[in-house]
Design a protein that fits this description.
Elements (H helix, E strand, L loop, with lengths): L7 E4 L3 H12 L4 E5 L8 H5 L3 E3 L4 H5 L6 H12 L7 H15 L2 H6 L29 E3 L3 H18 L3 E5 L1 E9 L2 E10 L14 E8 L2 E4 L8 H6 L13 E2 L8 H8 L4 E2 L4 E9 L9 E5 L5 E4 L15 H10 L4 E7 H7 L1 E2 L6 H4 L3 H9 L5 H9 L3 E4 L2 H12 L6 H15 L7 H9 L3 H6 L15 E13 L2 E2 L6 E3 L5 E7 L21 H19 L1
Helix pairs in contact: 1-7, 1-19, 4-5
């Protein structure tokens, strides 16, 4: 391969970019992968993820007695997506194509590359509305054995093999500043060469320019990610339906996830749709050992913690832990505050708290069956959770409720929480927990969760009173808004080709992953069912790589 010419250029070395590039190389075509970060960041955000994947009617589900089907998943997806715009034509078609992929060859395609999943299927985004509303009717969250690194590894390996064959070249520390076009066709990229950076993965790197570059190709695939690391851009695109943008947020992604390439591609004429659709979490906690600026971690909660807003009122049904991420975000923002609280016991945190992120799950990331088994047998919570309990700025641990509420107010810097009101609500919930017949919807939800063997084994504590001293100490966790995913993106057809003005395809331009709303410009619609972001990167990257290779 010459230094400056290829058949295809991929902008971004995250998961979607790696998948696209390896598909191009496997077709015998020449590909250059350009990334503003160093080689240590290969795999992008996917490396840091929990590795969750959405499968439909998988062997793992069937072994656990879960009855799933394409029709049920389609019903859940459409009820969650809420497609209601003229711009949703291609996102809807991408959603249907992705559902067919998740119910079909997705699992076997990954297994052929050595990918494996943990045998217990998780139940994320459970909804709580009617059967046609938001949420997964059944567990579908399959955790990659090896978490994020385990999903990146097969594609990094394929990429390295393509490098050895002379079909793939990496250009790290190359920041794209413009797309080049000839007679309306995208045929390359140009930009600045940044000085080498020896920072650790995820850390912010220098932007000092040491040179320029220009690359040519017959096609360019934009795989540059979203905007989650750029809080100003998040607030600029914040939808009115979710209330006032938070004054304070923490970041679930590194600072280089800045949306810069989205602006460059849009300036070249690409059609960006659904930019107001986004996916941010409300169970964010400040990382006591941060890697990137404002580094936050998401709690993946089980169903038992009591959830209170900043004024001390319990969140209304069905806004329970793990039920409806955006419903919770909308409610919290309506309170006039950008934080909320969990109150729970040591017995609950031991069984129900997991932390999103490969680095927070050394057992699963390290593929240690022994360490993973200890999640169910240890007296304490997993070590990373205990570390947050001991060192995290958002955790309060006390032996009685009075001291707990006092410390919560001290942490928040106000006196919004009233002991009598908090106690009244907890005691009411505690009265319900002893009865098999209840009207408390969260307690009903808890009983329902424990009917699923996966939840009963490792994700749901045995029902007990919050104020039962034998289950203590009491724990409160301040929950922050955590930026994460962009659900809108560049409008593309089913070959991932990007539309421009007048709904005309821009020749030579493709978009994948988060930059394309994971397909079509927003295949999730308004809400995600979880496990679908990595899957959207896989599916859109594969689609674009194959289409671009075929076109050149």
């Amino acid at each position: 391969m010459t230094n400056d010419v290829a058949d295809v250029i991929v902008v971004g070395g995250g998961l979607a970019g790696l998948v696209a590039a390896t598909e191009v190389a496997d077709a015998g075509k020449r590909v250059i992968v350009v990334d503003q970060e160093g080689e240590q960041n290969l795999g992008g955000q996917a490396f840091w993820s929990f590795g969750g994947l959405f499968f439909i009617d998988s062997p793992e589900q069937r072994r656990l007695g879960i009855k799933d089907s394409f029709d049920l998943a389609h019903q859940d997806w459409m009820g969650s997506a809420g497609f209601d715009r003229e711009e949703d034509h291609w996102p809807r078609r991408w959603a249907e194509a992705y559902l067919a992929f998740a119910a079909g060859e997705k699992r076997d395609w990954l297994r052929a590359m050595g990918h494996r999943v943990f045998p217990i299927v998780g139940w994320a985004e459970r909804g709580g509305y009617d059967a046609m509303g938001h949420g997964n009717s059944v567990p579908r969250f399959h955790v990659t054995w090896g978490t994020g690194p385990g999903i990146v590894e097969p594609f990094e390996r394929r990429a390295r093999e393509a490098v050895a064959r002379g079909l793939l070249t990496f250009r790290f520390r190359h920041r794209v500043d413009a797309l080049s076009m000839t007679n309306g066709t995208v045929d390359g990229v140009s930009g600045a060469v940044l000085e080498p950076a020896n920072t650790e993965r995820g850390e912010s790197s220098t932007r000092h320019v040491v040179g320029e570059f220009s690359l040519r190709a017959q096609s360019v695939i934009v795989a540059s990610g979203g905007i989650g690391g750029n809080h100003d851009l998040v607030r600029q695109n914040w939808p009115q339906r979710l209330g006032t943008p938070p004054q304070r947020m923490i970041s679930g992604v590194p600072a280089h996830v800045d949306g810069r390439m989205i602006g460059i591609t849009e300036a070249a004429g690409a059609r960006l749709i659904n930019r107001d659709r986004m996916w941010h979490y409300v169970e964010g906690i400040e990382n006591w050992n941060p890697i990137w600026p404002r580094h936050g971690i998401r709690i993946l909660p089980g169903p038992s913690s009591m959830w209170f807003d900043a004024t001390g009122e319990r969140l209304p049904a069905p806004l329970f832990p793990g039920s409806d991420t955006l419903g919770q975000l909308q409610y919290i923002q309506s309170t006039g505050f950008d934080y909320s609280w969990f109150i729970l016991t040591q017995a609950i945190i031991k069984k129900e708290f997991a932390l999103s992120g490969s680095e927070q799950n050394p057992d699963l990331t390290g593929k240690s069956w022994l360490m993973t088994a200890r999640r169910a047998t240890n007296k304490g919570a997993p070590a990373p959770v205990e570390a947050f309990k001991d060192h995290g700025a958002d955790f309060v641990v006390r032996d009685n409720l009075g001291d707990l509420v006092k410390a919560m107010n001290e942490l928040a810097g106000n006196d919004l929480l009233k002991f009598d009101r908090i106690r009244e609500q907890i005691e009411a919930r505690d009265r319900a927990i002893a009865n098999p017949f209840v009207k408390d919807a969260q307690v009903m939800n808890l009983h329902n969760a424990r009917k699923y063997i996966g939840d009963k084994l490792i994700r749901t504590a045995k029902p007990h009173r919050i104020l039962d001293r034998e289950k203590g100490p009491l724990i409160a966790v301040r929950l922050n808004i955590l930026t994460r995913k962009t659900l809108g993106g560049f409008e593309t057809d089913l070959d991932a080709r990007v539309f421009g003005a007048g709904h005309q395809i821009i020749p030579g331009l493709y978009a994948v992953g988060e930059a394309a709303g994971f397909g079509g410009g927003g295949m999730h619609g308004y809400r995600s069912l979880e496990g679908t972001f990595l899957g959207g990167c896989l599916f859109s990257g594969r689609t674009a790589g194959r289409a671009a290779a075929k076109a050149v």
